[in-house]
Design a protein that fits this description.
By secondary structure, the chain is α/β, with parallel strands linked by helices. Helices cover 49% and strands 17% of the residues.
């Protein structure tokens, strides 16, 4: 009844174990980073190296800038005040910025520079980028190529729209001429200095200079104009310096400083020219209007003078009184002012709507003058008939003469204005390239790459820690109600011995070499000290056991069961206990390598009746320690262990020895351990640090419980020396 209740009690104990809290342990996180510092450092070093490589190999980018001033519009001549007011509307800075970036300005700059013509020598793919000759920086501008060996400059290269972007190939001939081909077919042939045309007159090429060896080849590409403009827009930056200052800063970046400077200069120059042309165009339109009005006014003046002379002859020279003369002068002045207002109104109507304040002011002024004229007209009606007629005729003559002179003066002023137009934009600073490249920023790139490497390394360590389910502390097992009897640190000496034996075993023809137990080679190792502590714990753990048979098992291979079984047996024998070590792993047992190189006779041959107990039980070099190897690997190990001979063997050994230590296969892989556990009085499970998970150990215990086997507790093996557990497992090292 007692044995049946043990599994149930163990399950209840684990079910009632306290659950771990969800708080973040900053100390553990820091310890994880310290444990993986070399890995984090390696990742950061690789990232830093990549950053240095990129900073060294990346194409340097230079920046050029220019400074423009957009002034309030003023007349080219200070004395022409009225006209300057007419054309003096001021544009906002944002409007001027958009004009600078417009297709009109950038397209004109592209046409001026021939930026849509790309020329480059033919080089080997990829390799030629590093081995080919470099172009001379002071000549590598547009529509050409020059280095120490060859020069090619193009004055004109026209192709149909559907061939823009296609790659033409120019090959130098033996006599200095050339052949231009497209897709392997010749299109043009001739010499530098000639204007060559294709048969359809759509492809035109004129080379200004060609100096290259026969056989050398160049690629010629006529880029779409829209693509060139879009490229300019992508690398051009325009901004107002300050607020409402009218100062515009133009900047452009690119890999070739001379090319960037030439492009920015062309853009600033074309922006200035369009500004002047726009102002000249306004004056030109006004001048055209005046030129149309002057001949008509001249005709009206001549007709009025003719009528006046004819009337004088008919009326025998009628003179005006002083009062009538004053009225005439007022009427002429009013008509002149009205005519001037009409002229201004016609100009303003082309610029503004009738709701604009300037337009409405002119209308109000005109109405006021018209009312004054009506008053004078009523005054004239009170004069004698001849006086009225001579007044009317003289008024027409003087008014037309005044208008005619006024129009001539204004036309002359507009011609002066057009000739003296300088625009309201001026270039303060020509484009200049900064001596140092703005990209790549090497220190910043290296610093960012290193920082990203550190962050990536830290992130990888933390992510791996989140998904790592391996046991890293005995508290993880104890929280699940699993007793931990011993924590064995990883032995560096044992690792060195195993690596040495592996190298020896790889040698061809090398004789099998006996493995030395750590308790024999280094009795003072911390692992052996931990086994001695386990020896003490086992003494009390086995006091209530049914027999003195100790089974050591595990959930999976390579957890260290055999290592613990062999060294624990030696540690027990060293205190005078009579111990027998049994290799119960009939499939892959290898404990015999610690004592003898032969395992042909052992437990399997005894259980199958081929050998007697005296034949399989042997003494070792360690006093009080006997050993039974596994024997030949049988085809049915589980059936052999279920044979009554195995129970008889364990009973016999239990009587003759103080302790029987039996190593078993992993229970989650095969059922052998569950069979052996039925006979063993005490069972221990070995878990490897970082290798087995808590759930895996729990499944192991449940597997034993299902078969009615009670496991006393767990042994945590191969605990590595890390910051997260240094104080827990290594702080008490005594030398």
């Amino acid at each position: 009844m007692t044995q049946d209740n043990r599994p149930a009690n163990a399950s209840a104990s684990r079910a009632g174990a306290s659950m771990g809290d969800d708080e973040i342990d900053l100390t553990r996180l820091w310890a994880l980073l310290v444990d993986h510092r070399w890995q984090i450092g390696l990742i950061a070093g690789i990232a830093m190296f990549m950053g240095v490589a990129y900073a060294m190999l990346a194409t340097p980018i230079y920046r050029a800038d220019a400074l423009l001033q957009v002034e309030a519009r003023q007349s080219g001549m200070p004395l022409i005040g009225d006209l300057s007011e007419m054309f003096g509307s001021e544009s906002s800075a944002q409007t001027e910025i958009e004009i600078v970036r417009s297709r009109m300005v950038l397209g004109n700059a592209s046409d001026e520079l021939k930026a849509d013509i790309d020329v480059a020598p033919v080089v080997a793919p990829f390799i030629g980028r590093f081995t080919g000759p470099k172009a001379a920086d002071n000549r590598m501008l547009f529509s050409g190529w020059a280095d120490a060996e060859r020069q090619l400059w193009i004055d004109r290269f026209d192709v149909p729209d559907w061939l823009r972007g296609e790659e033409f190939e120019l090959t130098v001939q033996d006599d200095g001429s050339f052949v231009l081909a497209l897709a392997g077919e010749a299109v043009l042939s001739g010499s530098a200095g000639e204007t060559l045309r294709s048969s359809d007159e759509r492809t035109v090429l004129h080379l200004a200079e060609l100096n290259a060896s026969p056989g050398q080849r160049f690629t010629l590409i006529k880029r779409p104009r829209a693509n060139v403009i879009r490229n300019f827009q992508g690398i051009l930056s325009v901004a107002e310096r300050g607020r409402n200052t009218g100062i515009l800063t133009l900047s452009m970046t690119g890999p070739n400083p001379e090319r960037v400077q030439a492009t920015l200069d062309a853009i600033a120059r074309n922006y200035l020219m369009q500004n002047i042309q726009r102002r000249s165009a306004e004056a030109e339109k006004s001048l055209e209007f005046l030129d149309e009005q002057v001949p008509e006014i001249r005709k009206e003046l001549e007709a009025a003078e003719k009528l006046l002379n004819e009337y004088r002859l008919e009326s025998e020279s009628v003179d005006l009184s002083l009062e009538t003369k004053a009225v005439l002068d007022q009427l002429v002045e009013l008509e002149a002012r009205l005519n001037d207002l009409r002229f201004k109104e016609s100009e303003v109507a082309r610029l503004y709507t009738r709701e604009h304040p300037a337009y409405r002011t002119l209308i109000d002024q005109r109405r006021s003058l018209e009312e004054e004229r009506e008053r004078l007209d009523r005054q004239v009606q009170n004069l004698p008939e001849k006086q009225q007629e001579i007044l009317r005729l003289m008024r027409d003559v003087e008014l037309n003469q005044e208008i005619y002179v006024q129009l001539l003066n204004r036309a002359q002023e507009l011609r002066i204005l057009k000739a003296g137009t300088v625009g309201n934009v001026r270039i303060i600073d020509q484009a200049q390239v900064q001596p140092e490249p703005v990209k790549p920023k090497k220190p910043l790139i290296v610093a960012l790459a290193t920082l990203l490497g550190l962050m990536g390394g830290v992130g990888m360590v933390l992510v791996r820690a989140v998904f790592n389910r391996g046991i890293e502390s005995p508290e993880q097992l104890e929280q699940e109600g699993i007793s931990v009897y011993a924590t064995l640190p990883l032995s560096e000496d044992q690792m060195k011995n195993e690596r040495l034996l592996q190298r020896i075993s790889r040698r061809k023809g090398a004789a099998p070499k006996r493995h030395h137990l750590l308790a024999e080679t280094n009795p003072g190792d911390l692992t052996i000290e931990a086994l001695r502590s386990l020896r003490t714990s086992l003494h009390f753990a086995m006091m209530e056991a049914d027999n003195n048979v100790l089974m050591i098992s595990g959930p999976s291979p390579n957890v260290g069961k055999s290592f613990i079984s062999a060294n624990l047996a030696m540690v027990l024998a060293q205190i005078g206990q009579k111990v027998v070590l049994v290799d119960g792993d009939l499939r892959k047992g290898h404990i015999h390598k610690y004592f003898t190189a032969d395992a042909k006779v052992g437990l399997s041959t005894y259980l199958s009746g081929q050998s007697s107990l005296e034949e399989v039980l042997g003494k070792t070099e360690v006093d009080n320690l006997s050993f039974i190897p596994r024997g030949e690997i049988p085809p049915n190990p589980a059936e052999l262990l279920m044979h009554p001979r195995f129970k008889t063997l364990m009973d016999s050994l239990s009587k003759d020895y103080d302790l029987v230590v039996i190593d078993t296969p992993p229970v989650l892989a095969v059922t052998d351990a569950a069979i052996i556990g039925q006979i063993a009085g005490t069972g221990m499970v070995v878990a490897r640090y970082g290798h087995n998970s808590v759930k895996e150990i729990d499944h192991t215990l449940r597997r034993f419980e299902q078969n009615g086997v009670t496991i006393k507790g767990c042994i945590l093996n191969a605990v590595e020396r890390k910051a997260s557990n240094a104080y827990s497992y290594y702080a008490y090292e005594y030398k």
